[in-house]
Design brief:
Blueprint (H helix, E strand, L loop, with lengths): L4 E8 L4 E3 H4 L7 H8 L3 E3 L6 H16 L8 E5 L10 H8 L6 E5 L5 H14 L5 E8 L10 H4 L5 E8 L4 E9 L7 E3 L18 E3 L1 H22 L9 E4 L4 H11 L6 E2 L2 H4 L6 H11 L8 E8 L3 E8 L1
Parallel strand pairs: 4-5, 4-6, 11-12, 11-13
Antiparallel strand pairs: 1-7, 2-3, 6-7, 8-14, 9-10, 13-14
Helix pairs in contact: 3-4, 7-8
Length: 321
Amino acid sequence: MKKVSILGTGSYIPKRVLTNNDLQNFIETNDEWITTRTGIKERHIVENENTSDLAYHAALRAIEAAKINKDEIDMVIVATFSGDNAFPAVANVLQSRLGLREVMAFDINAACSGFVYALNVAEKALRNSKMNKALVIGAEVISKYVDWEDRNTCVLFGDGAGAVILGEGLGDIIDNNCYSRGDVNRYLHGSGTPLKSPENNVGNTVGNIEMNGREVFKFATRAVPSSVNIILEENNLTVDDISLFVFHQANLRIIEKATKDLNIPMEKLFVNIEKYGNTSAASVAIALDEAVRSGRVKRGDKIISVAFGAGFTWGAILIEY
């Protein structure tokens, strides 16, 4: 059975920086309040860019890092809940903009778990088909869905994109797991377009992100250790066998609690939440790219990435880089 390796990574962050001090100019908050509760110091938000723009730049950097010809790409998957439009998919837009062949291209929405879900799908597609290379992206412009008057949510989120090229190489995606629980979706959700009829032709409006922070924390701090333990046990590994853990960057307090429960040394953890906040499906992808480019990850290292998000969705992936 052929291996499915990460051949290259890339990421792209919008230029505009919104610091905690900036936020206190228009909502009742301050740097100490935000930092203490979340670990976030700043986040980036778009000005004149949309989700496909962020995904495009991240994709170019991943293609360059992988040292492949873009004509080798057989599939494009974009994990996002904040696409440019309801349709077509961001992946379809990218297929054209990148000048790719007429390949399979689609989006996947598992909220913050989207990139881990997408890696799961792409790995199985490559391993069990004639396709050889896939471009997998997590990209979000969450600022479109943020209520900038709600200090409990607007301080958390930022925009960005990360990408990987998958194909046969030295490493391998060893194992992954993905789960969902729709019965608790009320704790974190964003309203969709309202129903319309000829008699009630209401305009297309989309709601803001709404979150019960206490319940999300309780769920995440159970789901993350559970996913990690399952993947370790099923592969006869321990924490000592893993070089780096790349968690979804949602809240530093969640990461710290999960790390403590799993007895993971801090030196085995990659954290960049202070710079970007929660970028949803882009979070793990951006962190993975920064870990690779900073030298925290080397060929042969074993990595575990975990994500959790609205749905609720969650999952983990074990990678030999």
